[in-house]
Amino acid sequence: MILADKIMNLRKKNGWSQEELAEKMQVSRQAVSKWEGAQTVPDLEKILALSRLFGVTTDYLLKDEIEDEELTDEPDRVPVKRVSLTLANEFLEWRKQAAKRIAAATLLCIVAVIPLLLLAAATETLPENVAAGAGLVILLVLVAAAVAVFVSCGFKNAPFEFIDREPFETEYGVDGMVKEKQKAYRPAYAKTNILAACLCVLSPIPLFAGLVTEKEPFIVVMLTLTLLLAGIGAALFVLAGVRWASMQKLLKEGDYERRKQRRNRIKETVSTVYWLSAAAVYLGWSFWTRAWESTWILWPVAGILFAVVMCLCNLLVKEKQDR
Length: 323
Description:
Blueprint: H1 3-13, H2 18-25, H3 29-36, H4 44-54, H5 58-62, E1 81-83, H6 85-111, H7 114-121, H8 128-156, H9 161-165, E2 168-170, H10 174-202, H11 204-211, H12 216-251, H13 258-289, H14 292-295, H15 298-322
Parallel strand pairs: 1-2
Helix pairs in contact: 2-3, 6-8, 6-12, 7-8, 7-12, 10-12, 11-12, 13-15
């Protein structure tokens, strides 16, 4: 029996797909496919890793004349956590609650600038320094409240963190239960996303209406309405997305297939760095120019550029994984 057949048989014996073996070996699925198709041969480092992973000797893998498995004394198998029906229900219930909190915190982050805009437009009745100071205080308080919610959700999610970070298996009945909940939630998920998309697309209309007049207070009011509609749309996307993602995680579907999890972790890191940088640029620009009524334009521009950055990130990660 040749090496290619031995790798295939050992993989199937362990119940792993090519994607799962690729993840454990930190190679692409195409690499595993070529090994099993006898198109390429793993290098020595990978042979040793396969030996440890499957718990067989390197002689068994490399010598075609050895047909029977030769097990090592201490197979290097990493124990995989199992998700019970009770734990899966607890996870889904928690993510349902977390979705509401995260959505509210997202809305807070977006509308936090509204008091600052309204106070900036009220400089005829308030001293400029007082209006700017009060607006900044309210903005920071609202952002701090949102950050507190995010941090709190992170701590409460700790018991379920392994579902995001580590390989796991589900016990009997879990997949069926999650699929039933997913099927029941699908209509609400679709409606919420449609409503959110409509609100985001239509949100600039109040601003366009405000620009028809030259009255600055009216323009500011319309701008705040635009931000409010966009914030509600974003919050609805989060509300629906968090619950849907929790089901996909347990079922290992969509972006949570094992072969995509490494790509998602890279995207999360890039996303975090990007938005922290955008926030730093916004605050630095605003404090430097003191033009809070106009620096808000950075956020829609950042949103458009973010889509471009994510597309480039996907292409680069996919290219690296396919090598």
